[in-house]
Amino acid sequence: MLSLTRRGLSAITAALVLSGAALAQNATSLTEAQAGQVRADDKVMGDADAPVTFIEYGSVACGHCGHFQETGFTAVNAAIEAGDVRFVFREMITGQPNIAIAGFALAECAPDDQYFEVIDSLFTNMRSIFEALQTGEAQERFNAIAAEFGFSPEDVQACFSDEAAITQVQNAHRTALEDGVRSTPYFIINGDRLIAEPDSSGEGQVYTVNGAPLTDEEGVIPANLEADTFRRIITLYKGG
């Protein structure tokens, strides 16, 4: 069963470090090249024919991912609703591993049409989950979040004991490592990887693709997680 104790956290962290090191050595350029393609087991929102395919590698235990969900994702979501973006979310076990695995296992146990709602709730409640972990009440906090979606405490316990769900989360993380992803949030848009690099002044960062700054009619696009930045990126890739 998944452990939400600090001792369990240490064991999971050690296992992930070892598996990550091995995969980093064995990752192939072919695997990385395929990362921009939508896969059969991907979690997807939006029109399959949308002009922009936006892939996020993220974790429900990653503070920067939570910030993106609150800010930049609002622009992505608006584009999804407008039919301009097909959004793919790929799970990674970054941040506190036991919290990430527990959250993703809960989302995996939910009906398919509730997956993204559960993920959004986990991001919204991230701070309270971390606080509950410190006081030994993480299980109770997850129970409360899951109750919003009709889960009983027994359902949550069964989910955290579901080896298939936990293995699915761990496999998603390993696949992300094989894709060449090492941190979250990480974005691939229409096959292009967005990489943050220092700007020409050396005082800030900009998004680059293949080493070249990402530029639109407003200028070079800054590397941050704000809504306006991702509005600009989506507009650029949409072609208008």
How would you describe this structure to a colleague?
The chain is 51% helix and 16% strand. It has 240 residues and is an alpha+beta fold. The chain has a single domain, classed as Glutaredoxin (3-Layer(aba) Sandwich). The strands form 3 sheets. The chain has a 5-stranded mixed beta sheet. A 3-stranded antiparallel beta sheet has the order 6-7-8, with no helix packed on it. It has a two-stranded antiparallel sheet with strand order 9-10. A hairpin with a 2-residue loop joins strand 7 and strand 8. The N and C termini lie far apart (50 Å). About 8% of the residues have low confidence.
Mean pLDDT over the residues: 90
CATH domain class name: Alpha Beta
How do the helices and strands follow one another from N- to C-terminus?
Answer: HHEEHHEHHHHHHEEEEEEEH
- CATH level 4 superfamily: Glutaredoxin
Order the strands across the largest sheet as they lie in space: 1-3-2-4-5
* Share in β-strands: 15-25%
Number of strands: 10
Characterize the largest beta sheet: strand count, sense, and whether it forms a barrel: 5 strands, mixed
Total separate domains: 1
Helix content: 40-55%
Please identify, by name, the CATH architecture.
3-Layer(aba) Sandwich
Low-pLDDT windows of residues: 8-25
Distance from N terminus to C terminus (CA atoms, Å) equals: 50 Å
**Cα-based radius of gyration, to the nearest Å:** 18 Å
Shape: globular
Number of helices: 11
The helix/strand class is alpha+beta
CATH topology: Glutaredoxin
